[in-house]
Amino acid sequence: MLATERESEHSRRSNHERCWDHAVASSANEEGVHNGVPTVADVDRIAALADPIVRNLQITQCYHELSLALAAMSGGTTNWCTFATWASKQAGQTIRREDLARAFKNLLGRSPAASERVGRVVASAARIDPRRDVLGIRESAMRALVPMDAFEFTSDAVGRGNKKVFEEIGREFARFLATFRGDRAFDPEKIARFCDELRPGEPPEGQGRLKQAFARTTGRFSRRGRRRGPS
């Protein structure tokens, strides 16, 4: 890897680590996410964060916390929040423009036409001033070919989707855990009351499928029996 590429990779990782440290610190300063089971208030607070990168990192962490709480409630069952944790983590790469940048850089590196054009730019710059950093010029020329507007659009779209799913579905899982917290068995009438609070109809406006999912989930938990509940 070229020196400039190593520096760019180091800078990207450092920025990611700083964002993660900030996200964890912000969560730790709020009661809920790191002091027990995430609450509806935690979900609302995280969804309201303006910074899409910090918000995504906290969403991913909250999904993880919800997954652990649901697994404890069901006796170790893998659940929707388990997969949502992975999906949100993957979405974070797009929000931070990491995966698209990697893919596009690889494509440019394998493109004879792009290499030829970059080579011409480097040769012209070297003729103008032989003392110029050739590797730096090449890196700058490659970056100039990257469609940053497309990256920005994709990052924004994925960030909005990450937020929307979390504030709608993640919120209901937090409400589910709060509703059945400490119960020794699932009460069918209590389950029905919980599901009645979900919007009727099909998505995107309705939550009918989410209602079906919770009804089936609680039924499966009831058949398996509960080893322990979130405390």
Task: Write up this protein.
The protein contains ten helices and no strands. It is mainly α and 231 residues long.
Given the C-alpha coordinates, what overall shape results?
A: elongated
Order of helices and strands: HHHHHHHHHH
Instruction: Give the C-alpha Rg.
Output: 24 Å
> What is the number of strand segments?
0
Structural class determined from secondary elements:
mainly alpha
Largest sheet: none
Number of helices: 10
Which residues sit in consecutive blocks of at least 5 with pLDDT less than 50?
Answer: 1-10, 22-35, 226-231
**What is the terminal-to-terminal distance?**
50 Å
User: Roughly how much helix do the residues carry, as a percent range?
Assistant: over 70%
Mean of residue pLDDT? 75
Strand residues, percent: under 5%
Give the count of structural domains.
Answer: 2
